[in-house]
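User: Structure tokens for both sequences below?

Assistant:
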Amino acid sequence: MDRITTVAPILLDSKAAARLCGLGRTSFLTNDRLGIIGPRAIRLSGKVLWCREELEAWACHGCPPRQVWLALWPRIVEEK
């Protein structure tokens, strides 16, 4: 019998990113546009995606606004 392994994606579209953050998609996108969501999205193959690891770290650090997060995130990555 073959085992099916599920792999959690490392990049999330707006629907999955919103769900991870406990928000609706519209609220997530509005908060992103306003700079309330710290991590910035990336564009890849015509899609707008968020890094799961960065969203999780952002939440663990108290969900600071983007301006604060962009200064903090490189230091977090450096410490790993």
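Moving on to the next sequence.
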Amino acid sequence: MPTRNARSKSNRYDGLLVCRMEMLGLDADAARQSEPAAFEKISEACSSCSFREPCAVDLKRDPNNPIWETYCPSAGMLIDLAAGQSAAV
């Protein structure tokens, strides 16, 4: 049975992905529906990422700072999704 801390930690990191997506102008639900394979790959990478703490700090400190692109393994896919969603609008 998962502990309460493990559950809240998992939810926190899922929140990091949603927050990062929002900062890029991405609608997580729309991305999940339009690009399910890419969204699943990004979601899995985020949940097992070793850079979650720097990501959380960067989102809190200055969410518009592009430094996250240097360590995020999903940066390219997130940027591509954002470009695709903005082109569709």
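User: Anything stand out in the second?

Assistant: The radius of gyration is 13 Å.
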